[in-house]
Specification:
This protein has eleven helices and seven strands. By secondary structure, the chain is of the alpha/beta class. A hairpin with a 2-residue loop joins strand 6 and strand 7. About 15% of the residues have low confidence.
Length: about 300
C-alpha cells in the first residue's frame, strides 16, 4: 500500500483488531483528530514478538498529522521502524508539507550571498525532502519591520502552519523532528545529534562570528584569535577521528557545523586538514549546492527587480 491508493472500509465500525494468526501487514485508518486509537494500536503492536516483522501503516483521513490531538502526536516518536504515518492521499500529503514557509530578506548586497542563514533551513528541507516556500521581508527597514516575528530584526524565521520559530538553530531542530534523515530517532543517536548541534552554535559560532567580524573591520588585535584557535583545534582533533559528528552518518549537526566552519575567513585559519576535508565533504552534497544556488538566484533576481524599479 502506498499514499494515494484507494481503500474500502467495511466494519467493524469503531473497533479494530490485531490478529496474531494473520501474516498480513496492518493498516490502521482513523478520521481527523482521532489519533488516540492509532496510538493504542501501535503500542499493542509493539509488544508481541509475532508482530515485529510486520509493517504497520497509519492512514489518516482528511489531512491527519502526527501532532493532531488526542495523543496522536506521540505516534511520531513511537511508530516502530517498520511502520509509517501518512495522509490518505498524495494531495493531502503535499498540502501538509507545503505549509512550511522560510522567511528571509528580499535582497542583500553581494557579500553575504550564499551565507544568509535562511540557507540552513533551505538546506535542511532539501535534505529531508520537505516541501517549502520562501517569502521575504524588505531589506530596507529590516531592523524594525518584522520585530513581531523576529525580536532581533534578523532572518530567518520559519512558519509551520500556526507555529512560528525564529533563530536558525531552533528552526533546524524543528525540521529535524520531522525527518529521521536529519536526526535519528533512537535515544543515543538523537542525543549525539542534539549535543553537536548546540556545540556548533555555543562552542564554535559564538567565537568565530565576533572574530571574523572584528577581522573584517580592521581590528589589529581582537583578543579572540587564541580562543578561536583553541576551539578550532579541538574540532580538528574530533574530525581527524570520525567522519561524521553523530550517529555515524550525516545529521543536522553536520549541516550546522559545516555551515559555521565554511565561512571563508574561518576556513582559511591555520592548518586543519581534517576540518577542510569535512567541510568539503559536507558542502559537496547535492542538497547544499541546490540550497546555495537557490539563495543566490533569489538575490540575483532581486538585483534585476531593483534595477527596473530604479530606472522607472
Amino acid at each position: 500500500m502506498k499514499p494515494g491508493d484507494s481503500v474500502q472500509v467495511d466494519g467493524p465500525y469503531g473497533h479494530a483488531y490485531l490478529r496474531e494468526d494473520s501474516p498480513r501487514d496492518v493498516t490502521c485508518i482513523a478520521p481527523h483528530h482521532e489519533g488516540l486509537p492509532l496510538l493504542l494500536l501501535q503500542r499493542a503492536h509493539d509488544r508481541p514478538p509475532r508482530f515485529s516483522s510486520l509493517r504497520m501503516n497509519f492512514v489518516g483521513l482528511r489531512g491527519f498529522k502526527p501532532r493532531d490531538q488526542n495523543g496522536s502526536h506521540d505516534l511520531t516518536g513511537n511508530v516502530s521502524p517498520e511502520g509509517k504515518l501518512f495522509p490518505s492521499t498524495d494531495t493531502g500529503r503535499r498540502a501538509a508539507m507545503s505549509e512550511l514557509t522560510i522567511w528571509t530578506l528580499d535582497w542583500v548586497p553581494e557579500g553575504p550571498r550564499g551565507f544568509v542563514r535562511d540557507l540552513r533551513l533551505r538546506w535542511a528541507c532539501e535534505e529531508a525532502g520537505l516541501s517549502y516556500a520562501v517569502r521575504t521581508i524588505p531589506f530596507d527597514g529590516r531592523e524594525t519591520n518584522h520585530l513581531a516575528h523576529q525580536p532581533f530584526g534578523q532572518v530567518p524565521f520559519l512558519k509551520d502552519e500556526e507555529l512560528e520559530i525564529f533563530e536558525s538553530g531552533a528552526g533546524l531542530l524543528h525540521l529535524a523532528r520531522k525527518s529521521e534523515k536529519l536526526m535519528p530517532r533512537d535515544p543515543v543517536g538523537e542525543a549525539e545529534t542534539l549535543q553537536w548541534t548546540i556545540a556548533a552554535l555555543n562552542s564554535i559560532e559564538m567565537v568565530t562570528v565576533p572574530w571574523w567580524f572584528l577581522k573584517i573591520t580592521g581590528a589589529e588585535n581582537d583578543g579572540l584569535t587564541g580562543w578561536m584557535g583553541s576551539r578550532l583545534g579541538h574540532m580538528e582533533r574530533v574530525l581527524s577521528e570520525q567522519e561524521w559528528l553523530a550517529a555515524g552518518r550525516f545529521t543536522v549537526a553536520d549541516l550546522l557545523m559545516a555551515d559555521v566552519l565554511r565561512v571563508s575567513e574561518v576556513r582559511a585559519f591555520g592548518d586543519r586538514p581534517a576540518t577542510e576535508a569535512y567541510v568539503s565533504r559536507v558542502t559537496d552534497r547535492t542538497s547544499f549546492k541546490k540550497a546555495q544556488a537557490d539563495q543566490i538566484g533569489h538575490f540575483e533576481a532581486a538585483d534585476q527587480k531593483r534595477a527596473e524599479e530604479k530606472s522607472n
